[in-house]
Write a structure and sequence with these properties.
alpha/beta; Peroxisomal Thiolase, Chain A, domain 1; 2 domains; four-stranded mixed β-sheet; 34% helix; FabH; lipid biosynthesis; lipid metabolism
Length: 327
């Protein structure tokens, strides 16, 4: 990792704002999720707008005017076709480079990290801009208390370059997994080829994101923790070697359970969920960008990353944090 950047849109929705339209209380939201506020896009704003800003900041952080490839991890592309990454690349002045999207929901950043690393290791690229961006509120039913209080919009990005295993910024082996049998735990039923080819219009509400919370909680904790231990083993680290845990900011209860299961003390867990909510694929890189800006993660520290998302998908990896200018 040679650069990092993050961006959230300026409009903020507080817990108090949500209580005006949902049958809930500020105390219930904070107790259940650990979230106090979330950033949301303004009308007419799209995922590409978030991605461009985070990508620009990551390029500035890396001092890189040019990269070979742009990879965008997102569940909310601007359009079903074409991919959003080429537009992001062009708006960043990178027209002509390879650019493509990855869809792995909240694990998208780690899937993108493995993909970018493979391109670099194979000689297909020397520098890759990996952006994770989601305008998740465009998928959420504003009247659904279970999801409207959790999800938000944002973007995070990193610049990756070829390097040596022992130097600062080195990314360890990326552990990835999936389970399609449980895909219905986290889904948007309508809008894809299955619903479109069925000959029936989408039922009311099928265009919105759905999540079976109790089952998702259990799988998220188990999969993130197991992947984290596998990533530590692959890197030759022990739990005691970890200075900071950067887990997907799903909700505060999941974060606490994951940290406890891995064996990472609360003081070593990075978190921004209280102020930004669950930003989907953007969660981990946005967290890293904000932690860098605040001095919460410093050069030389060993950071463990782990995430879980729809698909089901999950993953984990390690990184020795480099010296980076504040994004």
């Amino acid at each position: 990792m040679a650069g990092v950047g993050g961006y959230v849109p300026p409009d903020v929705v507080t817990n108090k704002d949500l209580t005006r339209r949902l049958r809930t209380s500020e105390e219930w939201i904070r107790t259940r999720t650990g979230i106090g506020a979330r950033h949301v896009i303004a009308p007419g704003t799209a995922t590409s707008d978030l991605a461009v800003e985070a990508g620009r900041r990551a390029l500035e952080s890396a001092g890189a005017g040019r990269v070979d490839t742009v990879v965008l991890a997102t569940t909310t592309p601007d359009r079903p076709c074409p991919a959003t990454a080429p537009e992001v690349a062009t708006r960043l002045g990178l027209g002509g480079v390879a650019a493509f999207d990855i869809a792995a929901v909240c694990t998208g950043f780690l899937y993108g990290l493995a993909t970018a690393g493979g391109l670099i290791a194979s000689g297909g690229a020397e520098r890759v801009l990996l952006v994770a961006a989601d305008a998740f509120t465009t998928l959420i039913d504003p009247g659904d208390r279970a999801t409207a209080v959790i999800f938000a919009d944002g973007a995070g990005a990193v610049v990756l370059r070829a390097g040596e295993a022992g130097e600062a910024g080195a990314v360890g082996p990326v552990v990835l997994g999936s389970d399609g049998e449980l895909g219905e735990l986290i889904e948007v039923p309508a809008g894809g080829s299955r619903q479109r080819s069925s000959g029936r219009p989408a039922a009311v509400g099928e265009e919105f994101f759905r999540m079976r919370g109790r089952e998702t909680f259990r799988h998220a904790v188990e999969r993130m923790a197991d992947a984290a231990h596998a990533a530590l083993e692959g890197a030759g680290w022990t739990v005691a070697d970890v200075d900071r845990l950067a887990a997907h900011q799903a909700n505060a209860r999941i974060l606490a359970a994951v940290g406890d299961r891995i064996g990472i003390a609360p003081g070593r867990r990075l978190s921004n969920i209280e102020e930004v909510g669950n930003t989907g694929a953007a969660s981990i890189p946005l967290l890293l960008a904000q932690a860098t800006a605040r001095g919460e993660v410093r050069a030389g520290e060993r950071v463990l990353l782990t995430a879980f998302g729809g698909g089901l998908t999950w993953g984990a990896t390690t990184v020795t944090w480099p010296a980076l200018p504040s994004p």
